[in-house]
Amino acid sequence: MTFNYHYHIKEDVLFIQSKKKRSKQGKINLSSNELLHEKSFELNKRIMKSVVEKSCINSYVYFPQFIESYAEKEGINPNNVLLSSGSDESIRIILDALAEKSGNVIIQYPEYENYFSYADLKKINVKKIKIDRTGSMTEDGNLNTILSKANPSIFIISNPNGFTGKAKSIKELKTLAETAWQNNHIMIIDEAYAAFTSLNHRELLEKYDNLIIIRSFSKKYGTAGLRLAAILSSEKIINYLKKWNMPNSISSIAYNFLIEIYKVSSYYNDIFRDIHMSKNIIGRELEKILKINVTSNTDTNFILLNFKKKYLAENFCAYLADNNVIVRDLSHIKNFEGVVRMTVGSVNYMEKVLSIIKNYHLNEGLYE
Where are the transmembrane segments (predicted)? Predict the structure, then answer.
């Protein structure tokens, strides 16, 4: 006799694809768009040493004081802030709390995989608005028209986009927020890459009480392993989301790190400028070496390598993997065939990568 899981497990969930993780230890990871800069490494190391000394790990954290401190630094009302253990958790909280009743999500595609995974778990209908590598829609109409005709939904947009690297202007987002508000959609702006731009989505919160901003610190401060994010929205939505957020899900180390890093946040502006400069330098070098077009003028910390054919992209990624460099092949996504996404760090950080790629050009060849 065996235990019968039938009474407890949803059979259809077994067929939902989970995000696959692979070890990147000892490798140069240029696939996750983490902040790769020597100054960031040094700042985080110094802050972490200080934080560990002052964090009390044998007691639960009194988190309201950290929300108040964060809100003060950002110049917003604490009642408009909810802190969570990373942007993944923020996505889960929002979809759990708000998407199930309407049962509808409208989202640009491609987009971060976990939006689709969480929607599948909740059996939420997802309408994908397909875009190409320039960020342009590949179907008739525009976002405002689609929002005007759709039933009340959760409308999700990353700005900048994590696949095209392109950002919409505040003016464009204001128009979308207005259309969403008029048609009873909740609008989510995922600003994981916003630190690499001058965009300030927060000004939209003052006018649109249907707006939610997910603010990750992973890419902004190079703290992906810390697992900490902020949700910004109207007081009514924040109070509702609190019911889905576990109050003790964030460690005292993460809370204290957030407060300490704001004391040196001005240093990161120089780091962001360095990353943009590095993108241009690395992009030009790769164009010379590989004889391909490289999109370097992104609003993020990654560039796009545009190979002519899918198999060329696959061969290139396989070669780098054999040399302990991981990049992301986007060829499986329609309209992104032959495109490889590569995180760019400082020029010094990228030197070894360039030398490896030069050997590929000499030894492997790219052309038929």
Answer: none
Same domain membership, residue 128 and residue 70 = yes
How far is 314 from 312, CA to CA, in rounded Å?
5
Distances in whole angstroms, Cα of residue 263 to Cα of each of 64, 65, 240, 266, 268 = 19, 17, 31, 8, 11
DSSP assignment letter at 32: S
pLDDT in tens, 27-57: 999 999 999 999 999 999 999 988 887 777 7
Token match 């939209």: residue? 204
Domain span at residue 129? 58-250
**Beta carbons within 8 Å of 172's beta carbon, 6+ residues apart:** none
Angstrom distances, CA of residue 311 to CA of 163, 308, 323, 331, 337: 20, 9, 18, 9, 9
Q: Final residue of a domain: which of 191, 224, 250?
A: 250
Tokens of 353: 């990568």
pTM of the model: 0.93
Q: Cβ of 331: how many Cβ atoms within 10 Å? A: 19
Question: Do 322 and 333 contact (CB within 8 A), yes or no?
Answer: no
